[in-house]
Amino acid sequence: MNLKLIPLLALTALASCAAPKTASKASHKHKIVATNHSEIPAGENTIAVINVNLIDGNGGKPVSDAAVLIKSGRIEAVGAMGSFKIPDDAQIVQGKGMSLLPGLIDSHFHLDRVKDLPALFLKNGVTSLRDPGAWIEAYAEERKSGKPMPRLFLTGPHLDGFPPAYPYDAFVVRDEAEAIKQVNDAADEGATAIKVYFRLAPSMIKTITEAAHKRGLPVTAHLESTEATQAVDAGLDGIEHITTFGLTLTPKREAEKYRQGMLADNNFRRQGRYETWEKLDINGPKADSLASFLVKKGTFVTPTLGAFEYQAGTGPVDKTKLAGFNSMKALTAKLNKAGVRLALGSHSIIAYAEKGWAFQREMEIWVESGISPSDVIMAATMENARFFRIDDQLGSIEKGKLADLVLVKGNPLEDIKSMRNVERVMVNGRWIQR
Fold first, then answer.
1. I need a labelling partner for 241 at 20 to 30 A (CA). Which of 35, 225, 267, 343 fits?
2. Exposed e or buried b for every residue in 237-271, given b needs 16+ CB within 10 A?
3. Is the pTM for the entire model greater than 0.85?
């Protein structure tokens, strides 16, 4: 055996041991690519990042003195320093004192008509993002801006019943034929997933998931007024927002009161969700059963805790919001410990993050909830790649994968706030200007 390969083989073994979670249940026959994949130029140079702390995205131990070789937009070699030859013509990037990670993947991004937001997220390390519920045309201006873009995994408008919660971003489906038609139209237009919203009943969700799976697309959902386990049994691949599980964990009579309130007024949830979550028993049998169910089903869950964060300031404290948010954090940590597939999404614009830093704030909240930085990073990279069904190309630093990378000062495994210390960002083998 070539002894120089031993470090790389060890990395591979660690990665395989660190990712025991089950695969997604739907078909992978259809190759999913970013909606704007043809618009992202590939690097032509050979680049070597040396003497760097390597965090490869697979959840294994880091390599403290590593090198990564990039050639023509792809990762050519990975290993400890000295484990492979660096070509004489390679551009050398010194990584001492820094950590190299896979490009961050945001599973829940909303453009929200904020100009240049994708480009700003890219500068801060998010190299791929999914907008779960917006017309593909909504990104036309951003894509024509001339600014470097992350890989855009767009879904088309979310599917909802009448009256839709967010008419601007919704396509209303009134029967099965209309739902199937919209799924196929979205697939034909380059959608990379389908999202359903909370006014749809489980029977309609089943119709949508069957149609989407025939096209090789995953389906995810925000379901505060549709019970989550019923929807997952109907075929869902993902759940958006930890609050979606409120009905599942609430006694049926109280859950129906909340559901009817939601159906009558979309804004009922603004305070109602905190009142619901304040009362939940996160350590009770219902929560245990939910965790086991999600593990068995292999369902991806994107908590988006930042969207619901409440901090007690110097003024009067809303104890209901504080207790409710703490329960959301506790359930997220519980699901992670149980082995549920967690995906990390920012929600883009949140109360306690400056514009462009919502993804990093989400990472920090997870750590504050009791999840290890290693698990947080894996959720932000490889697990999201699996959720998107692009893990053969992205999500980890491995030979043959596309070279989407982020270089940060410090070690985020020791302090997750180091993820804010972005030094350089690479997409498709090209460093972007920051």
1. 35
2. bbbbbbbbbbbbbbeeeebeebbebbeeebebbee
3. yes
